[in-house]
Amino acid sequence: MQVDFSYTLWIPLTLFASFLVVGLFGKQLKPMLSGAIATLTILLGMVLSYTAAYQYFLGSGLVDGKYQTYIPYDMEWLQFFDTLVIKMGVLIDPISIMMLVVVTTVSAMVHIYSFGYMKGEDGFERFFAFLSLFSFSMIGLVIATNIFQMYIFWELVGVSSFLLIGFYYKKPSAVSASKKAFIVTRFADFGFLVGILVLSYYTKTFDFQELMNPENAAIGNMVGISFMGMSVLSWALLLIFMGGAGKSAMFPLHIWLPDAMEGPTPVSALIHAATMVVAGVYLVARLFGLYVLHAPDALAIVAGVGAFTSLFAALIAVTQTDIKRVLAFSTMSQIGYMMLALGVSGYGGEEGLGFTASMFHLFTHAMFKALLFLGAGAVIHAVHSNDMGDMGGLRKYLPITHITFLIAALAISGIPPFAGFFSKDEILAAAFASNQLYFWTEWAVAGLTAFYMFRLYFNIFWGNDRDYEHKPHEAPFSMSFALIFLAIMTSIVGFIPFSNYVSPDLIPYMAHFHWNIAIPSVAIGIVGIVIAAILYLKPKSTADKIANAMPSLYKLSLRKFYIDEIYFWVTHTIIFNAISQPIAWFDKKVVDGSMDGMAWVTNKVSDKTKNLQSGQLQQYAFVMIAGVVGLALFVLYYLK
Amino acid sequence: MIEGIGVTDFLVVSTIMFFVGMYGFIVRKNLITILMSVELVLNSVNINFVAFNKYLYPDLLQGYMISLFVIGIAAAEAAVAIAIILNVYRKLQGIDVEHINTMKH
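ok -> structure tokens follow
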């Protein structure tokens, strides 16, 4: 039975309309009304997404044992000439439907939560307008039918992220964080654009389906052309991955993400934890057929970057004291997991477990990480500080936040039956099947994750009471509602049999449960939690002693491995001195110099010749007569 | 015909007058003198007209007529020029041609 999915087009369209209405007329409307418009729009989007998911997965999606790709809507948007047409459309397949569900769910919860969190803030309606813009862009990205449409929306989410990080634009740190985020991701997007151009130069198409078509001869050609030791296709895909790495904060393009926590906490939950930062993973997943079948070398690099980032970020997260930064590094680490899972995945059947696991983890991570951020937001709302040192014993004051935060922390630590356990288990199984080194790395990272998460949890909710200026109070209903909803999601989504729905070749399969993986991974998670409990449950100085025992290591982690300083050194010392200054000199002396020289010559010439125009009548007469006489002599003696 | 005087003699006189006038026009600084020099140039031309008419086409009158025109126009020009000079004098308290350069700017 064919179902018409064209109603999905209304999701981005209504969101865009909401952005326009709230953005343009927000000042005239009551703040609550603007918020309500944006929230109702995203709730409508959520309903439509769930409908689409229901119809697709439980209805018309599966035809002859294979999930179909539908394009209910595709229009020519820009036609430059016959062979270069940019289209805009809606593409429906398992991963785009899944992303629609993720984006609309988290976004709707964040909208509701923001009613409580942003109450009374300056720019309440501006905030909701930006949220609408972001949701619109993210959905446009997810349903893109071609890589150029994806790129356009990719930049749009970048802009919305920039606007929302810099929401408190009167705070210098927020402004510089927003600039940093924009510049770093923009730099990465440059690679993405070059990758798109290389890819489309050879294949003459932007369209995902044509790119993925196994009979596409151009792809074979690209594999055949080699450039500096790799095929052109691998280069193109690596450049595209560079864009993905920038958005997904993969090492070494991750430096913007911790700073992006300057934005309001709901924004961190929506953009910098659940949706936008996984766009890179989605991008690789979208082009997965190309990576896995034609460019395994590029895919190996994806895996390596993912594995390294997950370990690296987890090590940093252990020592951070700003609770949002811990969560930011944790996000990086978890996205590293997803990248690794894609990197080790094969194509068909059980081989494709990594792909499934990556998408599964993306799904579950969106739920529990958004929950963690929103929980952290509730804590910050209650104690007006981001620093762990200012918190303690909050479980008595914030019971709902406490329970939901605990659920999310258990989920991210991979403790059954919460969502993170299932997806992480699949990732570890996929890594185990491919490369032992990756498996043991990720296994260790799972332990670190549990440790830093429960360090956070115990520091916030247990330990000593502090002298709070105001007695901390439980969040208002709108915030609690979002927390509870996401906590329920976190508890149940793990039971979705993801491999029945999402696989690289669109053919569902049964993923087996891996006891040999699950038991050690749960064990290391519990070990991490126990260590955290020993160190932080009761206020003791053991943790400080350990930190003091290895000061250099502690410092290295606390200062985030000095990556920011390295960037600073590279940009200021090398780029400014070695590149920018010579170019500036060239500009000043040669480019400007030649222009100034022309002006100088003109000036001098006019200085010398201006005496001809003296205003002296007799001088003119003399010149005229001399001319006439000269002409007469010329005619008489020369032309005779 | 005037005995003993040929057309060349007239032309010599008129040439001398012309260049005297030209010299005066270029060299003198007083506007009145310059005007007088212009009159000299015009009259040298008149002499040429009359001489050529007399020696080349004694039966015709065009040359005389044109020199009468020139005299008339010179009179008109002198009237206008002197009016201008008077106004210049009022405005600039002088008629030295070197100081009359306000139009340059």
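Chain B touches chain A at residues 22, 25-27, 29, 34, 97-98, 100-101, 103-105 (CB under 8 Å).
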